Amino acid sequence: MATIESVTGPLDASELGTTLIHEHLRARDESNAEQFPHLYDDDALYAAAVEAARGALDRGVKTICEPTAMLLGRDIRFVERVARETGLQAIACTGIYTYDHLPLFWESRSEDTMAAAFAHDIERGIQGTDIKAAFLKCAADEPGVTPNVEKVHRACARASLRTGRPIMAHSRPASETGPRQVEILLEEGVAPEQIQIAHTGDTDDLDYIERLLETGVYIGLDRYGIEMYLPTERRNATTLALLERGYAERMFLSADSCASLDWFPDETVELLMREGAVNDWTITLVHDKVNPALREGGMAVEQLETMMVANPRRWLGG
Ligand SMILES: [Zn+2]
Predict the structure, then answer these.
(1) How many CA atoms lie within 13 A of 291 on its CB side?
(2) Around ion ligand 1, which residues have CB less than 5 A away?
């Protein structure tokens, strides 16, 4: 079987086990954290990540894909420390998480130069370590596929072709970014089975979703708990409808939870929770509430196994 790099070393694909495809152990603005470290409580953030990792392990999760790329505060030593302390296997990415902005460094350089930087992380190691990235990350959101966003997608595609590693593309169904993202990646020559369109589950427009699935890509039903984009009941109904239509082999379940996230002050987070904009948005939500509800709704055990074990193994293993 294929070898897959984790932050604690290479794994045989058969060792991945139950895998959450999209969970963050810490997400924040790295330049802010670098410049104003006094605004962050390192010990508390580490403790939150360890607690999340243990919560996942308690539910039988063996592995997470940790898609924290550049501009989302990627810190590979942090993820490694959590993985070593808890035993949770973590798979790291390379790439840039941006909805448009790029540092001037990258504004003035080509897709190929960017692709070489990404390939370095896969072939040599991340941030001066020998910890290797196992997938690529890009994003498109409300501004759509802007020239900068397109540049990152093309760079991911070229790094993917060079290294054989798959791509996870954050998408925004409300802006219908998915089809254009797929188009760019396919145009570059990436095989559809190497592509995962994350956050597709933020819509229950089955026509939109099927249009993506018909291209052969994977989709992430991966934001369980973010009710403001789509409530859990409607996410579940969508998941069940897609299973019914035979797409189990192209679907992932996850929550896109962040053990910590610096985007909002505490009082805003409390307000969002009070207003129900997010609900149970944690790494354990899929196991505690989603899977039982899906089982009750008719999901077969084999379908769950396909989504949580076989699909991650196939997508990451190439
Ligand atoms: Zn994410």
Answers:
(1) 24
(2) 256
